[in-house]
Amino acid sequence: MLLYPVILASVFATAMLSGVLGMAGGMILMAILVVLMPVATAMMLHGAVQAFSNGSRAWFLRQHVEWRILPWYGAGAALAVTGFAALTLVPDPAVVLILVGAMPWFAQLTARAGPSGIGRLDISKPGTAVTCGVTVTTAQLLAGASGPLLDMFYLDSPLNRYQIVASKAMTQTLGHLLKLGYYGLLASSAETLPAWLYLAAILIAVAGTRIGTRLLDKVADDAFRRVSGWVILGLGAVCVVAGARQLLTG
Fold first, then answer.
1. Engineered SS bond to 40: which of 25, 45, 88, 190, CB 3.0-4.6 Å?
2. 67-99: buried (b, 16+ CB within 10 Å) or exposed (e) per residue?
3. Is residue 88 left, alpha or beta, with left meaning phi > 0 and alpha meaning psi from -120 to 50?
């Protein structure tokens, strides 16, 4: 009896968090859903909710979207989906969790170790945007969420907090729609959830996103980048631990 209220409360809280930071909410929601239901079902619900949550955030902040990034990101995403479709690939998500979790730490260490500009991932550069599209879409199709990986491509860019949140929302919307379509074709055995739950979760996600984007006005750029960086690294560590635990117990 408590399953659906827990799901809806989790959707609202994580959508509001993502509205403020432009990240973290999707990964936390995925972690909750896979505990509550089968993986395939969790992927479907997560994809639907996150597509609308990110899409609404992009709409609310549409004047800040850096549209020049999207064609390059989309090209990379298309490459990833083409590869998955050709192979019908569904690898072990535990390995992907470890890789996704390690990437923010690797990028952080590389940026600090090298001279200025070396080792940094700047999404505003076309080549980096294509790489981002390939790696982030691959992570979404494999593990459901890719927040720490995507975030590292934005935090070293010259974009301000509004441009970061809005542009990430657009790229995440594309990725979750691709994930929803991919698992919709493969997950014929997924447990069926009632249609009203999907609708309620989507509406609640949009509401939480709206509240979060309003709170964004109260966050300064310096504080935004500082808090975001620590959240990214923290989530990365959680992903590594969770993936290693799955490998050891699975």
1. 190
2. eebbebbbebbbebbeebeeeeeeeebbebbbb
3. left
Query: Which single residue is written with the structure tokens 């790489």?
Result: 131
**Residues sharing a CB contact under 8 Å with residue 244, sequence separation 6 or more, in sequence order:** 94, 98
Which residue shows structure tokens 């080549």?
A: 127
Residue 209: CB atoms within 10 A of its CB come to 30
pTM: 0.74
Per-residue pLDDT of the chain (250 residues), as tens digits, is 689 999 999 999 888 877 776 666 777 788 788 778 877 788 888 888 888 888 888 898 899 999 999 999 999 999 998 888 887 766 566 776 777 677 677 666 755 554 444 456 789 899 999 999 998 898 888 777 777 678 778 877 888 888 988 998 899 899 889 888 887 777 655 567 888 999 999 999 888 888 877 777 776 766 666 776 777 788 778 888 888 888 888 6
DSSP 160: -
Tell me how far apart the alpha carbons of residues 130 and 122 are, in angstroms, rounded to a whole number.
Answer: 11
Structural domain span for residue 60: 3-249
Distance CA 230, CA 54 (A): 22
d(CA 182, CA 141): 8
